[in-house]
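User: Can you fold this complex?
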Amino acid sequence: MKFLAEINVMPQKEILDPQGKAVKIGLQNLGINQVSDARIGKHIQLQLEAGSEAEANQIVTDACKKLLANIIMEEFEFKLIQL
Amino acid sequence: MKFLAEINVMPQKEILDPQGKAVKIGLQNLGINQVSDARIGKHIQLQLEAGSEAEANQIVTDACKKLLANIIMEEFEFKLIQL
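Assistant: Here's the predicted assembly.
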């Protein structure tokens, strides 16, 4: 079975996000003043082969914990789409 | 009305994604061989104030085109959640 994993890795809520702050200021400089908060993270798409959805879930969790997210400063969430 | 915009900015499909390639190799080095393709982009959360969903849609499209995405090399999509 082929799956597409759509993963979001975001800075944890308690942690300052200087990139998000820069984006907010950049938007204001462009005249877009309606934005009160901006947070920036990564969006990762993985295509993978797995025997079941549970196995795919396990592989993606593993990939996030070992490589894609720094779990001290970031949190991740993902959804799986069967292709 | 308050909205949360969940934006994904990804490299266009025709464009090489060296960061994605590096992630694929990194996963293989960790023994995760089931991943056949990886693409890396940005995930951006904006909180904004708008009179209607159509107005929020317009503000976020504007922000993406003017600042958040380089539309020559990247594509963006987003969904709006009313808070």
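The first strand of chain B starts at residue 2 and ends at 11. Residues 2-82 of chain B form a domain with the Mth169; Chain: A , fold (CATH 3.30.1280.10).
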